[in-house]
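Technical appendix A lists one of the benchmark inputs used to test multi-chain prediction within the project. The record comprises two sequence entries:
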Amino acid sequence: MSTSTDVIEQLATTDYKYGFVTDIEQDIAPKGLNEDIVRLISSKKHEPEWLLEWRLRAFRTWLRMEEPAWQNVQYDRVDYQAISYYAAPKEKKKLNSMDEVDPEIRATFDKLGIPLIEQQMLAGVAVDAVFDSVSVATTFRSKLAELGIIFCSFSEAVKDHPELVRQYLGSVVPHTDNFFAALNSAIFSDGSFVFVPKGVTCPMELSTYFRINAKETGQFERTLIICEDGASVSYLEGCTAPKRDENQLHAAVVELVALDRATIKYSTVQNWYPGDKHGVGGIYNFVTKRGHCRGVASKITWTQVETGSAVTWKYPSCILQGDDSVGEFYSVAVTNNRQQADTGTKMIHLGRNTRSTIVSKGISAGQGQNTYRGAVKIGKHATNARNYSQCDSLLIGDRCGAHTFPYLEIKNTSAKVEHEASTSKVGEDQIFYCEQRGISKEDAISMIVSGFCKEVFRELPMEFAVEAQKLLGISLEGSVG
Amino acid sequence: MSTATLDERQAPYLAELDRFLRGRGDAAPARVRTLREQGLARFQSMGFPSTRDEAWRFTNVQALTSTPFRLGDGVPTNPMPLVQRVALPGAVRLVLLNGRFAPELSDLSAVPTGLKVGSLATALAQGAPECSHLGEAPMDAHPFAALNTAFLEDGALIAIRKGAVIDTPIHIVVITGGTGKTMVHPRVLLVAGEASQATVSLTLLTSAGEAHYTNLVTEAVIGEQAHIECVLDQRGTEGAFLTSNLHVSVARQGTFRLRTVTLGGRIVRNDASALLAGEGAHVDFDGVYLVDGSGLVDNHTTIDHATPHCTSHELYKGILDGKARAVFNGRIIVRLDAQKTDAKQTNRALLLSNDATINSNPQLEIFADDVKCTHGAAVGQLDDEALFYLRARGLTEQAARDLLIHAYAGEVLGRISVPGLRQQLERELFRQLERDLAEHTQAGAVPAAGATVDQE
């Protein structure tokens, strides 16, 4: 036991590998939040009147709301007046090729090990890189345009496809939904917009790298993905953030709309700065993600690998309205040192023959606190609805915690809902067995953890699966026990 | 925000408390008076819960709190048949009639040595040493427990001497009724000495007619290596309100098994919590409930694994019909350093109607790493294939259903070791199911078949 604790300590002291600040010119709004700031953001982005109105409505709703406190995490409350709500690299002329992108920004991505150009060429991934708040590079646009797929930054979508944005914005997560969704709706800076027309299968994985850069600017992304009848898309979202001492707030909103027989697969690898081992600094990740299976036989899959952030608080959810629609949630959440996570999903069954699967794997190490909180609701008219939930927790070390709070509400007799949860630890006997066979303690842990998470990693697209494995290794470095 | 409404809702209870204290509370020993004051202070500061409180999110007690209950001054006329209906053969029986010990209905003739069963008020007046445990249970967070303490007067004291093995079943019968809407706040204190063994059954009954409210608090202290089984048997009428708070602390190597059987009632809320205070302690919390009409049954359990090497098992099974609602909330806490904990929790619900709702919320809070904790929840209907199988073998649909439900409920009922009680409860369960079924299918649609299966 003592030796393994030593290894944990040793690994826990490993530095956050992605902590660095890129120095580029910034256009930053004054600190604080009021109607003028909302107007400023809107005008900076040259937004139409209706969107400004929408933001202001959201802002006024937000003022009347109270920050929720029911979650199983502790953190210093955010001072919303001490944050600057807008930061963008200085406006530059339109870019036609990657070469025109600021070399410093490109270097940042290089350090992260995801060079845009290489990714473009090797992986065939179209990358919409969001550097702080404004999209700086969008690739493969023309290739996608041929198929009628729109993949652009949110501000561009507002400019070029206002009718689509207006129709779907806030239709899944209304601005009245919760405190952070209201905040986001009022001051969202940018984000991604995807529209896949009828019958089109998106030929490549769409991906965005979000990155918080400027000091003390929260990032308020807004993502909207719409799949028309029979269309399908796979979207990747990944995050890394530089090292900071002040806590930074990240309150994003993601809305997915799947019409008849449409399929949306949304995968996230989240590796924001988790704070140091004493719990200083780190990102607050308070995100509202929701998918709406509006059409018959539509399908939404959420896959997430959460390794970063000081506090993670999010519940990617599915509203299964269309008959025969399917919702899936696969999650791996890792908390090390003093990280806290309260995450899970909501599956709301409204249509007939709707099915949902929840597989959640929580790994707690150091003094990390990991909570699964999920809701499964079967409506009165959701005949033959099925749900299967599985929540497994893995504890590494004896000072961490794993908590499970599922909520099941069933109103239909034909519903079949199953929930299972288990908690286990990385056994000394398992490690001993591996060590006996010449496998180092580190590799043994890595193997055991990979095996534990296999069911989730299997759901990730190739590109992400590899990165996720790596991230998991880095996150758990020093936590073996 | 709702202080005004809370005060309003509290007012009739406070007025009734005032009347109680002036009327007959003065004679109580100083200790009781102190406890009452503490209970009152807690109740006043908390107020009645609303659905905005997490622990009451799915349980709206409006119908209860808005009813102006009065302390039972009168008693049900002729309660003897009620007692006889539930009497257990060979048992030591103590009856609490509207919260007070009723010697004429009790049968304490065969109390074996090593066992003390009697009125709590008498024990308190005589200063029985076991009474020092009264008020020890941490129930501060529960408004109805506080209300019970504020009204503390009588109840039952069961004390089992160190090393005593009591074969005789102990039966506490709590009867609520009378003219007008009656409320009672009985208290049961169970103290099991080191290495003692016993079974205790608590049967709660309400007389027909008006809606009555029983607010029971049970405190149990289980000594080292003691083995106690407790059956909480709730058979309220359709309009009855019932809140029950049970707290048990189990010392090293001690075992406490609780079986809660709920048949009937308009709002039934059971809070059971266990503190595993010594290494190797074990608790079983099992429950089965049948809820129909517009009834609500809520089972909240908390098991606190405070020390290493403790085990706990929970199995709750529900049958819901009509517009019934049921809530299960099972919390398991594994404290820091409570290594080698083994906690298992299972919750199942069988929905017989589309208007019924079940909320199932298991909660695991684990702060130690070398533990085995599992929980499972399943909701569904009777297995079509199993039904078909039985039908193919010549059983009527109802007989097939009964057989399956029998097996379903039997898993919990079968664990009740008190002779006679299990059979009573099974009969009662099926009598109610049959009645529900008849309402479902209207008269004559299904050939009447009993719970027994016809054989060739």
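The two ends of chain A are 7 Å apart (CA to CA). Residues 2-476 of chain A form one domain. Comparable benchmark entries are summarised in Table A2.
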